[in-house]
Amino acid sequence: METIKLGEVQFVLDHRSGPLRGKSEDNKFVLVKTRRHLSFYDSLREWAPKHILELGMFEGGSIVYFDKLYSPKTLVGVDIRRAPIPALERYKEGRPHIKTYYGRSQDKPPTRGAAQTNFPDGIDLVIDDASHLYAQTKAAFENIFPLVKPGGLYVIEDWGWAHHKNYQGENAVWSGQPALTNLIFELTVMTAISRVIDTVTITENLVSIKKGRGMLPVTKLDLSGNLRGKEMSLI
Predict the structure, then answer these.
(1) What's the rounded Cα separation, in Å, for the pair 32 and 17?
(2) Number of other residues whose CB lies within 10 A of the CB of residue 184
């Protein structure tokens, strides 16, 4: 496994499947990011987003990484796990700009509530590295994207899982789940019909949605009135 270092903190790039991944320790955090992920986030350093929300913290490595990379004013992490991450909780001592929320699903009202409470003037950067499932990721986008500032970014990581070899076949993990790719299709259509999305940028392992200056035409990402009477079937 590769390691990188920012300041006094070492990051272990652990790409193994979930049960095999390591645990974060003081000043040594597990970071489930590829080099392409890191290259993308490094490209934002000049912009230096100051108000950041992450959905899905795993072992807290990315929260610490974003803290070191951008020196944000507000950095909030939300995770469905109920047990706090010990190394992350120790790291955030004396750093009141970092807030962590446990036992919160990305698509539920308490997550939007945490975002509204901590970002009254809007969010610069959202990173969704949570469930990677279509319904939950779409609901989170509908809840949180309206809080992103014009020009801000909403990033969805690891969107293409359904097209990888290990996910093919009836007995594969998540075989009954719609592909997250469906949301990417819907966001592309929304870009055509609303100025709320400025651009959608897709790479093999993340999609970045830049907020425009328009408003969502509906409270939900409902495209039924803009498909020429046809249906967009799920894959």
Answers:
(1) 10
(2) 16
pLDDT per position as a tens digit, 138-165: 999 999 999 999 999 999 999 999 999 9
In this structure, the number of other CB atoms found within 10 A of the CB of residue 203 comes to 13
Structure tokens at 133: 């499932």
128-142 b/e (C-beta count within 10 Å ≥ 16 → b)? bbbbbbbebbbbbbb
Domains of the chain, start order: 33-226 (3.40.50.150)
**What count of Cα atoms within 13 Å lies in the side-chain half-sphere of residue 192?**
9
* DSSP 8-state code for residue 189: H
| Bridge pairing between strands 148-157 and 123-128 | parallel
How far is residue 73's CA from residue 70's CA, in Å, rounded to a whole number?
A: 9
Mean pLDDT of the chain: 94
pTM of the complete model: 0.96
Residue 116 has pLDDT above 80, yes or no: yes
